[in-house]
Amino acid sequence: MQTLPLTDQELAAWLRLSTAPGLNPTALRRLLAAFGLPEAVLSQTFAALAEVIDEATARAALAPPSADFPAQLDAVRAWRESPGNVLVTLDDPAYPPLLLTMPDPPPLLYVKGRVELLHTRSIAVVGSRSATPQGIEDATRFARAFSDAGLTVVSGLASGVDGAAHRGALQGRGSTVAVIGTGADLVYPSSHHALAHQIAGHGALVSEWPLGTPARSANFPQRNRLIAGLVGGVLVVEAAMRSGSLITARFANEMGRDVFAIPGSIHAPLARGCHRMIKQGAKLVETPEEVLEELGFAAPPPPAPVQPPRLRAVAKPSPAEDETLPESGTPVPAEDRRLLDALGHAPATLEILAERTDMDDTLLQSTLLRLELAGELCALPGGRYVRAARNG
Questions:
Q1: Could you tell me the domains of the chain?
Q2: Tens digits of per-residue pLDDT, 107-129?
Q3: Which InterPro entries does the annotation name (predicted)?
Q4: pLDDT (0 to 100) of residue 315
């Protein structure tokens, strides 16, 4: 999709108004609706602007640019010259149509990658940064199914569920968009540099923040609002009671988007946010097909049978690697902790635990038996295991 070419004067006017302190996107949209392009807004008198917006905002719009504005403008020019980098303005045909339904759409979007994905049907997959192994698996599996069905998967490039959602989509058709809370020239967290490179090559990175903007906690709720605005629905995989994912879901609900949540164990802290949303009206879903059906999409064909993983023998950890459980004060072998972390709070089979822990069959069976005798887990019918419920 081609974007509108901008002259240097037009680019400077867009950048000046979009970065003017005290001029929020809602007020800027009103000015653009009244006077046209940013150059026309900047040519108006204070009195003319004050008739459309309040006096303080009119002063903000006409205030001289900051001393470092020429450097900012040069940086944007240089960034646009790199292959795959596109600056999309509010009046550009390439601007995402769903964002135009918001009262405060960002005036500028910095897009790195396939800008056409911003016009496709999409769903957000979000959740905890500290996701359990089960949450990572669910996010990956759901996102891949959505991508295979033709949906673009949108998330926030964060650790945990977000990263798993992007990777799952890349395993499918590769249609994924990462909405980031920094400038488009930065990657946060730094551990996701390789993932961001993959997304830019097969999907798109999107930011509304000026180049060079670092990661700040205040940026991420606004990032979540943009995620909700871009999509037709939001799926929350895991979320604690105080979670940015719940902010995304709230924005989505206010914008009339569908909200879905995956339930979990009543003992799992990261299921409580999902359960709260379900109580408030989010759709409880257990399979990707349920979400696709709600959105009017055909489910992808079933995947080919997967061979069970080959088990590798691993050396037993040294006593120095042992940990202590705070409940009992008793030293706990490292493999016990590894298996409990892999088990999470949802039932899992021997095959799943072997894949997650990389234990050989003998070590896995002995560790399971030891934890069962210690009351840390319970064996369920069908060869599954689950953490033991604890009171208090």
A1: 8-113 (3.40.50.450), 115-294 (3.40.50.450), 319-387 (1.10.10.10)
A2: 999 999 999 999 999 999 999 99
A3: DprA, DprA_WH, DrpA_SLOG, WH-like_DNA-bd_sf
A4: 41
